[in-house]
Amino acid sequence: MTSLGFGIVGTGFIAGVIAEALSQAQGAHLAAVSSRDGARARAFADHHGGNAAAVEGHQALLARDDVAAVYVAVPTVAKEEIALAAIAAGRHVLVDKPFLNEASARRMIDAAHAAGVLFMDATHFTHHPRTHALRAALATTIATPRSLHTAFYFPFSDKTNIRLNPDQEPTGAVGDMAWYSLRAAVEYLAPQGAPQTVQALAERDPDTGGVVRATGLIGFADGTSTTFDVGYTADTLAMDLHLIGTTGIVIMDDFVLDWANSFPFKNTGLKAGYVHRHGMASHADARFIEVASDTPQQVLMVDRFADLARTGSADDRARAAAPTLATQALLDAVWAAIP
Ligand SMILES: NC(=O)c1ccc[n+]([C@@H]2O[C@H](COP(=O)([O-])OP(=O)(O)OC[C@H]3O[C@@H](n4cnc5c(N)ncnc54)[C@H](OP(=O)(O)O)[C@@H]3O)[C@@H](O)[C@H]2O)c1
């Protein structure tokens, strides 16, 4: 198996996480990194890549023969232009979430499919075996999922960060955090049809105007619904999920980043999995179903990407992109509902 050479565009926080993931991957490696500043690219490559190349500007990255795939790790306003340039140069693209809107995501996906290359968004949790195991177990745990509630918060108040700058991240905490809530709805609730009811509200930072907290409700034509509460303002981390079915409830308190083995957490004493509650039962009777993964989900993501890039069919590529479009469509509906 040939290892897939990745070029990373951007030298910020999540670029570093994926550079580390590439160093642990079986089928992919960091070949090069680009920055708008050559010295920053060099420092990043020295820190993460060992012998990875460092170049100034993404066009220089795309000129390299050792770059077969590009990971786009820049603010949302800059993602589409870079991804389209990479696709036009025949490179597979892993583009971090969120997107400007569904039309922007669709342009990138359509261009990738027309060029016969892979487009994937960089949502980590969907690659944890727990996500697949839970979906497969729904029929025998909660029967029919009817509603999903999620809360995702992390403590964050740096007003100079892109998250609080609407010129860089136009939807702020909605795109950054509710992306995961809405992706969980796509993965676990799998609603049929367009939203019928959408309500949402947002709190903005008084200095930057960036969205720092948001709450929303979506009702679907099939009678299912989802609510979410996300933001940076609670001074704690929360990753709570309640998936409510017709024969019980599934609960996780780490649905985005498992406590056991994800990029911010390594807790050998904690297990990845989910709780199933059923009937008139107390906590003592709740059943914990472990779904362990020796490999962190972000490493599984880059290896899955490399597999699909190497051997995926056009149908596989379409299947990989479908949840991106579904999630971004929900995000657009939520954003449009915010006063
Ligand atoms: N999937 C996940 O788990 C995950 C986690 C965190 C963030 N994200 C998403 O990833 C994106 C980046 O987040 P981050 O926290 O890594 O941000 P960050 O730390 O600010 O890094 C972004 C990098 O992009 C480059 N950049 C900045 N402005 C640019 C522009 N206008 N054009 C081109 N490049 C530019 C910069 O690198 P140079 O200065 O070297 O060019 C910068 O270091 C966000 O949309 C965020 O929502 C995803």
Automatic annotation (TrEMBL):
Q: Where is the Gfo/Idh/MocA-like oxidoreductase N-terminal domain?
A: 5-120
- Which Gene Ontology MF annotations are present? nucleotide binding
Please identify the protein, giving its name as recorded.
Putative dehydrogenase
Q: Which residues form the GFO/IDH/MocA-like oxidoreductase domain?
A: 141-250
User: Where are the membrane-spanning stretches?
Assistant: none
InterPro entries according to UniProt: Gfo/Idh/MocA-like_OxRdtase_N, GFO_IDH_MocA-like_dom, NAD(P)-bd_dom_sf
